[in-house]
Amino acid sequence: MTDRNAPPPVPVGDGLDRLRIDRTPPTPGSRRRSKAPWIWVGVLLLVIGGVAYSKRESLSAPEVRTAKVRRITATEGAVRTSASGYVVARTRAAISSKMSGRLEKIQVDVGDRVVAGQMLGELGHADLDASVAQAEADIEVRRRNIATAEAQHAAADATVRSQTTRVAEMDARLVDAERTVALQEKLVAGGAGIRDTLDSAKMQRSVMAEQVSRGRAGVESSKADVARAEADLASAAAGIMAAKAGLAASEAAVAYARAVRADAFIVAPFAGVVVRKEAEVGEMVSPVNGSGSTTRGAIVTLVDFASLEMEVDVIERDISKVVDGAPCRIVLDARRDHPYAGVVRQKVPTADRATSTVQVKVAFKDVDAFVLPEMGGRVEFLDPARADSALGKDRVIAPAAAFVERDGKPGVWILRDGRAEWLAARKADGAASAPGEADVAEGLAGGEEVIVSPPANLNPGKLVRVVQ
User: Fold this and answer.
1) 91 exposed, middle or buried (CB, 10 Å; 0-12, 13-18, 19+)?
2) Per the domain annotation, does 52 fall within a domain?
3) Crossing angle of helices 195-262/126-190, nearest 10°?
4) In CATH, what number is assigned to the domain containing residue 385?
5) In which domain, by residue range, is 170 found?
């Protein structure tokens, strides 16, 4: 049987026929068979070349010694137990007014620091201003009534004095008239005078008698006037007392109106920071916010940052390790590299049966601007004997010979996947913790494998051989 894929036979001819190019197109099968061997030959050559290059690079790689960078935690051996929790404030308040009204002004914003007594906002108080003005006007009316009553009292007193003086004068004239009559009667009876004188004395006696009669009537009338004047004086005194009582009532009304008006001005009850703005100008504010009501119950939330502390939940089996007043190390999630000193302020005298924990409150010894309410963190309860060292930072220690300079900048060479890699780093100033070692100031975190006394011809990415 004839193979269809076989090439056609070459005709036998002279030399020129053999030099003729065969332009018959090859079949697909014959093309695959012709290229496949060359592909495999190329791959084999590449593999052999790569192995040879790697072998050559490995043989030419410099020999180095390496060491691990150590990290020593500050709390190593000093932590009795630890617990997680959040930053809270002991002094925190939603500031509202004592009365309901529309918010007309708000004078603070979120983040503002305020002092005790500082104005935070104002409610509408036009009607309260009118009440105060009305009460003050009523006081003025009361004062004028008192002045009028006192004037009437003074007039009545003057009348009483005048009538009393008139009565005294009438009494004196009556006494003189009686004395004259008695004297004339004695003269007439004794015959010491002449007849004409006696007749004249009798005439004078009748005149004096008539004057005495009229004087007595005047005295009685004057006494009645005095009695009426004294009654007017008593009435005026009563009017003064009533006017003064009315003045006291008006002054109390003014004080009440001013107190109600003062409730329209919302002030800070303590120094702190505004952390939330609860209402805007134009909204209704009420001290009691009913369910479903659009009325705001407060205008701002104020926090005293000096009262910030950590609240953590300690598991029951470790609560005996927590002692009131014991030192603590507070590490916030936002600042793991900056621990804070703390002290146990209170162990809440009850447990949570759902979580089998006891809440413990830890006060900060020193709070900076980075500590914010509701931040998460961890509290480590320390052994008092080792609290001072535990409150420091973790130490990172590396071989002193690993620190070199490259292009004028300090750093170390680290080993990563068998190759050298440059890393900027700096050792701390001061004496070494141990011979041949140095504290790391920055650049290394611990756990890195550094090259000790690296050769001068190292380049980033260069293959090295580690010598034990």
Assistant:
1) middle
2) no
3) 170
4) 2.40.30.170
5) 127-259
Name residue 187's amino acid.
Answer: L
User: Is 187 part of any domain?
Assistant: yes
Whether 375 is in a domain gets the answer yes
Q: What is the pTM of this model?
A: 0.52
pLDDT in single tens digits along all 468 residues of the chain: 444 555 555 454 455 455 555 555 555 554 545 555 667 767 776 776 665 555 555 556 788 888 999 887 777 777 889 999 999 999 998 888 777 778 888 888 888 999 998 888 887 766 666 676 777 777 777 777 777 767 766 776 677 677 667 666 666 666 665 666 566 567 666 665 555 555 565 565 566 556 556 655 655 565 565 566 666 667 667 766 776 777 677 777 777 777 777 777 888 889 999 998 888 888 887 776 655 556 677 888 999 999 999 999 999 999 999 999 999 999 999 988 788 999 999 999 999 999 999 999 999 998 888 999 999 999 999 888 777 766 667 788 888 888 999 888 999 999 888 888 999 999 888 766 678 888 888 888 888 999 898 888 888 888 888 886
- Per the CB < 8 A criterion, the answer to whether 437 and 387 are in contact is no
Asked if 103 contacts 283 with a C-beta cutoff of 8 angstroms, the reply is yes
Same domain, 319 and 377: yes
Rounded alpha-carbon distances, angstroms, from residue 339 to 65, 263, 393: 35, 44, 7
CA distances (Å), origin 237, targets 4, 247, 300? 151, 15, 56
On whether both 215 and 291 belong to a single domain, the answer is no
- Is 165 found in the same domain as 224? yes
**Cβ contact 94:297 at 8 Å:** yes
Helix (H, G, I), strand (E, B) or coil at 335: strand
The answer on 337 and 412 residing in a single domain is no
Within 244-334, strands assigned E span: 265-267, 272-277, 284-285, 300-303, 308-315, 327-332
Burial class of residue 198 in the structure, from the number of CB atoms within 10 Å of its CB (0-12 exposed, 13-18 middle, 19+ buried): middle
- Has residue 29 been placed in a domain? no
How many domains, the chain?
4
- Same domain membership, residue 216 and residue 156: yes
